[in-house]
User: Which sequence fits this backbone?
C-alpha cells in the first residue's frame, strides 16, 4: 500500500499572492449573548437592610428609601444598571417589618401609658 500523496498548495493567482482576508465577525464560535446588567449597590443594600430590619427599627425605612432610589436608577438606565427586582424585594421586606415594628412600639408605649393612667386614677 502506498502512502497518500501530499496535497500541493493551490497555484498562486496571476500577479502574486492575495492578502489574507479574515472571516466576518461572528461567523465562527458561539454567538455573543447580550450582557445582563449587574444590580446596583443600592439594590443590594436595600435587600440587606430589608432583611436586617427586624434587628433595628429604622432600618426598614432605610430599605424603602434605598429600594426606591435603586428602582428609579434601574428604570432610567436599563442597559447598564439592574437589580430592580432585588430593590423591590428589599422595599417589601423592609416595609412589612418596619410596619410591624412600628405597631409593636406603639402598642408597647400605649400599654405603659394606659398602666400609668390607671395608676393615677386609682389614687392613694
Assistant:
Amino acid at each position: 500500500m502506498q502512502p497518500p500523496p501530499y496535497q500541493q498548495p493551490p497555484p498562486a493567482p496571476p500577479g502574486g499572492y492575495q492578502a489574507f482576508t479574515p472571516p466576518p465577525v461572528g461567523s465562527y464560535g458561539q454567538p455573543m449573548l447580550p450582557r445582563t446588567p449587574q444590580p446596583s449597590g443600592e439594590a443590594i443594600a436595600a435587600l440587606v437592610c430589608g432583611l436586617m430590619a427586624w434587628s433595628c427599627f429604622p432600618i426598614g425605612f432605610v430599605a424603602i428609601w434605598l429600594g426606591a432610589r435603586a428602582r428609579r436608577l434601574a428604570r432610567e438606565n436599563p442597559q447598564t444598571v439592574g437589580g430592580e427586582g432585588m430593590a423591590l424585594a428589599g422595599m417589601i421586606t423592609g416595609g412589612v417589618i418596619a410596619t410591624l415594628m412600628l405597631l409593636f412600639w406603639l402598642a408597647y408605649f400605649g400599654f405603659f401609658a394606659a398602666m400609668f393612667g390607671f395608676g393615677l386614677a386609682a389614687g392613694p
About this structure: The chain has a mean pLDDT of 84.
